[in-house]
């Protein structure tokens, strides 16, 4: 089935996702550095992130897990001129490549890349940090429950929280799979369930060029 999912994503992209030199160069640079591009969001998912931000006229965005900054580009281009993105990357090598891509895309003004474990960076933000309008959680899956709680602390009523990779080809329902990343996602589902700070939430499974995975989406009460 993978080939068909990939071909259908190509069909969708060829119709609905405009060719873009900056995004193309970002993916090429990622590959040239020897990093696998399967960690990046698919173009049609990037467009969905862009649209969620546009729909809600978000100005302040938080991203956990920059990797090559490919998703960061999609988030950034949805923002008005006075928009701001704080993106956090835990691995030095990924952060260096991400910064290179951000600089090339001339997004330095809007994008603040911090290096460190996302939970530590978030805990060390100044007390008076303004809440974010949109939060994209895409860092290590093991820490998703912690990231969800920290994100809720940095939210206001109406903040949108988008969590990537919450299906993992169905591994989340395979009881024999006790990997920390998978346990982390399961714990996140439990935490979201009836959470007093969440107005509504759901998750969707997806297939496409990145295989079978999915995302969760929450609106803060
Ligand atoms: C992985 C992580 C991601 O954020 C993603 O989108 C795809 C795969 C991974 O760690 O395998
Ligand atoms: Mg991801």
TrEMBL record:
This is Methyltransferase. GO terms for molecular function: O-methyltransferase activity; S-adenosylmethionine-dependent methyltransferase activity. Keywords: Methyltransferase, S-adenosyl-L-methionine, Transferase. It comes from the Bacteria. Pfam families: Methyltransf_3. PROSITE patterns: SAM_OMT_I. One of its GO terms (biological process) is methylation. Signal peptide: none annotated.
């Amino acid at each position: 089935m993978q080939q068909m999912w990939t071909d259908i994503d190509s069909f969708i992209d060829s119709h609905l996702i405009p060719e873009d030199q900056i995004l193309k160069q970002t993916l090429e640079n990622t590959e040239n550095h020897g990093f696998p591009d399967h960690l990046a969001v698919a173009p049609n998912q990037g467009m969905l992130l862009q649209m969620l931000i546009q729909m809600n006229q978000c100005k302040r965005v938080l991203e956990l897990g920059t990797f090559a900054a490919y998703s960061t580009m999609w988030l950034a281009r949805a923002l008005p001129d006075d928009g701001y993105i704080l993106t956090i990357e835990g691995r030095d090598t990924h952060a260096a490549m991400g910064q290179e891509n951000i600089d090339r895309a001339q997004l330095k003004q809007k994008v603040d890349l911090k290096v460190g474990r996302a939970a530590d960076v978030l805990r060390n933000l100044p007390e008076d940090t303004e809440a974010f309008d949109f939060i994209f959680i895409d860092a290590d899956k093991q820490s998703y429950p912690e990231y969800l709680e920290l994100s809720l602390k940095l939210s206001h009523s109406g903040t949108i929280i988008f969590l990537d990779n919450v299906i993992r080809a169905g591994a989340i329902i395979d009881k024999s799979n006790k990997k920390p990343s998978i346990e982390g996602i399961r714990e996140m589902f439990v935490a979201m369930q009836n959470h007093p700070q969440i107005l509504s939430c759901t998750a969707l499974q997806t297939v496409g060029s990145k295989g079978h995975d999915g995302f969760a989406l929450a609106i803060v009460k």
